[in-house]
Amino acid sequence: DAKTTQPNSMESNEEEPVHLPCNHSTISGTDYIHWYRQLPSQGPEYVIHGLTSNVNNRMASLAIAEDRKSSTLILHRATLRDAAVYYCILRDPNSGGSNYKLTFGKGTLLTVNP
Amino acid sequence: NAGVMQNPRHLVRRRGQEARLRCSPMKGHSHVYWYRQLPEEGLKFMVYLQKENIIDESGMPKERFSAEFPKEGPSILRIQQVVRGDSAAYFCASSAIPDGLNTEAFFGQGTRLTVV
Question: What pLDDT digit, counting tens, does each position of A35-56 carry?
Answer without folding.
Answer: 999 999 899 999 999 999 899 9
